Amino acid sequence: MRVRSPGLGARTLRARLVLFTTVTLAVVCVAMALATVFVQRSHLYAELDQRVRDAAERSQGGLQRRAGDPTDLGFLNERGQPIGTVAARLVDGEVTAAEVVTSNGRHQPLTAAQRAALHGITSDGTLHTRTIPGLGTYRITAARGDGPPVLAGLPTDAVQDTLSDVVATEAVIASVGLAAAGAACAVVIRRQLRPLGRVADTAAEVARAPLDRGEVTGLTRVPAGDTDIRTEAGQVGAALNHLIDRVESSLAERQRSEDRMRRFLADASHELRTPLASIAGYAELMNQGGTKIEPARAWRRVSAQSARMTGLVEDLLLLARLDEGRPLRATEVNLATLVAEAVWDARAAGTGHDWQLALHLDEPASVTGDPDRLHQVVANLLANARVHTPPGTRVAVAVEATCARRVIRVRDDGPGIPPDLLPSVFDRFTRADTSRSRSAGQGGGSGLGLAIAAAITQAHGGDIGVRSEPGHTEFTVTLHRSGDGARLERKRVNPSR
Fold this sequence. Notes:
Elements: H1 13-65, E1 86-91, E2 94-101, E3 107-109, H2 112-116, E4 128-132, E5 136-143, E6 150-155, H3 157-192, H4 194-208, H5 232-288, H6 295-323, E7 331-334, H7 335-349, E8 354-361, E9 366-369, H8 371-387, E10 394-401, E11 405-412, H9 449-459, E12 463-469, E13 472-480, H10 485-488
Parallel strand pairs: 8-10
Antiparallel strand pairs: 1-2, 1-6, 2-3, 4-5, 5-6, 7-9, 10-11, 11-13, 12-13
């Protein structure tokens, strides 16, 4: 697994979150600063405009109290005229005289260029912004009262200085605030994303595990503290743990399946090799001639071993067809009749056992299924009881029929199945030869009888189980009543669980 190394083009989630948060805060700060400056500017200019109007009214009032020619600006000598105040006399829209109050309280006439900046201002009380050379930017208005029109203006320098101070102050505050907020966000985001980092480390460690071979167990899990589903990182951790559990169980099942397959192939090879070796041995003896063995006896042994090998191959083919989920023949079968016939056949084959049959029928014991295969299930269970118990053992077979199900029970009072063998009793090639005694003269089986019985039962949609202890072993086959079999006949099964 290749992991991309950090570079200029790679940004971690933490870096992106910090950057996004910082940029968002910066945008908010800029918007607030602009709104503050705009409101402050409007307020300051409204106040300045009011002062300009007041100045024009005072000039108009002073002019009314004074007599003079059109160039008289003596009213500037009155108290209350701020420094920088510009005043002018207008005659027919033309500036006839204009002066400015200097810093020492005196008033100085404007130059021709400065007076030119005042041209075009009508005496309708409208506020104008003009830049007067050498003096700066002014807010100016011309007022007409009962006497001649007078122009008055005040500089905007104080307003601009105030706004500059506000902008500088907000810039400093915003910079410090953004730096502090960015650092705090980096710390908080780093801390909050630590669980996600541990989840990523766990995923990387699992990815390095050799999942393609051998038995895989003990994969690393995300710590319990990082699986709190109330948080996003905890949800990811919990989901990863669930995924690892699924992967581990799937790999374990794969390993078990591979082990079963290896055992199956080894056992099948061994079972086939034994009759083949016998056939080859007898054929070699017959080829050598002489009197070592009678030809008729040799042919009988060859035929017996061929039949044994044929039966084993047919059992393996049956299991393969059931594994593929091929449908079984579906007809109505009376289990009572089928089981009775199987018990009679078993009694004829095992005269040394005590065979018993009991019917507990609340209604007809009919099922939908393949009669030959169901007979094979019962026959295999009876053969298992006959082969693995000594002579004189009582084998009791019972058929139960209720409104919901049909049950076949096969009980014996033999030595029982060893506890360590019980979980795998329905696996293929499972044998109990070393643990359960056999009747004299009986040969070994292939170990496929119970596996076939389980596969056929499951193909009919039923269940098979076993309980065993010394002196009591009971196999139970549960099937559905007639009418349900057609729904279950095509069910896929895996008898080598």
